Amino acid sequence: MKNLLNKITRSKKSFAMVLCLGFLFTSESCSDLSEEAFSEITKDSFVPSESDAVALMASGYTPLRFIMGWQGLFDLQEEPGDMFVTPTRPNGWDDGGTYKSMHFHTWDNTQWQPRNTWITCYGGINNINRVILQIQSGEVPVSEELSISIIAEMRALRALWYSILLDTHGNVPIVASYTDEIPTQNTRSEVYSFIISELTEVMPLLSEEVNNSTYGRVTKWGALHLLARVYLNAEVYTGTAQWDKCMEACNQIIASGKYSLDPNYKDIFKENNENSPEIIFSVPYDNVYGAQWNAHMKMLTPGHQKVFNMSSQPWGGSSCNPQFIDSYDVEDKRLADSWLIGDQINASDGSVVMTLVNEMPSIYFCEFEEGYRSNKYGVADGSKSVLNNDLPYFRYTDVLLMKAESLLRTGESDQAASIVTEVRKRSFDDIAKATVTGAELEGDTTVQYGTLAEDGTIDNPGDQAPVLFGRFLDELGWEFAAEFRRRTDMIRFGVYQTKSWYNHTPQANHTILFPIGLEELNTNSNLNQNPGY
Fold it and tell me: What is the pTM of this model?
């Protein structure tokens, strides 16, 4: 069962009431209260219950649905990496060079994907600050106990929004109150410290419950996961590694006993995935009232309408770089669990609709069948142009592999290998194949980097220096394919800035951050552009 944040959208009338209650005491309150259902709700008579409080907090959560929406965070994290490519197709997809500039790392400060993330993050932050103000000022009358709980959860969620900006734009304003003042810019290190401070301070006040009432909300375990993720990338963000702190946060989640590996990898991502034992925090979607998940429409070909008996025809844009596909062990079930391969079968009559091949001649033009397509997230029979799946934002496997990476980087490679082997066992029938050693994880990547000629051979190898712990980076790629994180992982391992892949050659170190949008610079004189732009 979806949590309350999703259930409150199950009827249009309920959703309208939630919006009115959420903004009742702001200058942006609903203006039409003529309907009888709302006529008795006034500031004096409305005493929120806990469920009303959850509805109030929803405005901080629901913008997260942009992740799998059009040019959302998924695109921003995957298009610049070595996994997803969106070439020109028979039906278009040049789109003014948008996807090519993402692949080539030649974006500028007018590029929409980075701006969309900036705008959405600050929209979510602004909503949270407004909720906190309403609670603290007494405009929304709640008990002291509930007030403490709401504010703690909102601050943890605000830290999550800032963690996105920390990773994508780095030097951004910290806006910790609902104000009309023009914000000043903070350094990446200051944003990092703010996130750590906020999470550490509210951690004891967050719920430890794992049930329907906390599903889709930031609990203590979600906050610990976020803390670990920020510590994992601390060296990128601040210049100082924090492997021990990352491991400490992971150990707390592991010791709680609240989560476990899902026995079936595909079940984590299927349409009704809310009962997966490894989801720590998810973003609930609904194909009617939370209808922003359309990333599958970009990944699937038009012919997949017949394969999945869809009510809408997909658009056929992105597919997987053959170099990444070639890195898989053929016995790794995650290959078929993550990608559509070979013959695509008509759901109605069993005929072959098309045959997908692991070939992509050029980003400047590929046929629909060229390139394997993402199959990570289940497309149910009869699916629309939006999916009903919930998005696993934090899952337990990530906790295990963050701990493994921290062990690997602090000289405990054999312990790291034991954890990686545990994860791999789910996806291999042969236990010997699933087993890895510490020495293997310390070794080079199996991805054959270099730009590709149209026949698929490497025409320009570029930097061929061994990648330290590159084999572990491969594990992250195979396990977390299409989970909107490849860019971040590649940066941490130094691959994003140095290697060539498909038609991409490295630009410069400044591309590890996106530029601040031109419009944002023009409307806030306190902002300075990120270096290199």
Answer: 0.92
